[in-house]
Amino acid sequence: MITQKEYQARRRELASRLPADAIAVIPAASEILRNGDSHYRFRQDSDFYYLTGFNEPDALLLISTN
């Protein structure tokens, strides 16, 4: 299992690669409607999950270099 410290380290690494005064906006995946009232099985966006470990739809990750 990946610890919260590992996710935090991944976010710090990304922040260190951004230019000064930059903001990265990384969206989570959305639920996709299959038909009428049925959804496809939810699968989180890989980049978002790699940085957060958060598996809920329609979230945003904001990373600032300030």
Q: How are the SSEs placed, and which strands pair?
A:
Blueprint: H1 4-17, E1 23-27, E2 33-35, E3 38-39, H2 46-52, E4 60-64
Antiparallel strand pairs: 1-4, 2-3
Could you explain the architecture of this structure?
With 66 residues, this protein is an alpha+beta fold. It is built from two helices and four strands, in the order H-E-E-E-H-E. The protein is 32% helix and 23% strand. The strands form two sheets. It has a two-stranded antiparallel ribbon. Strands 2-3 form a two-stranded antiparallel ribbon. The radius of gyration is 14 Å and the shape is elongated. The chain starts with a helix and ends with a strand.
What are the salient characteristics of this protein?
alpha+beta, elongated, two-stranded antiparallel ribbon, 66 residues, 23% strand, two-stranded antiparallel sheet
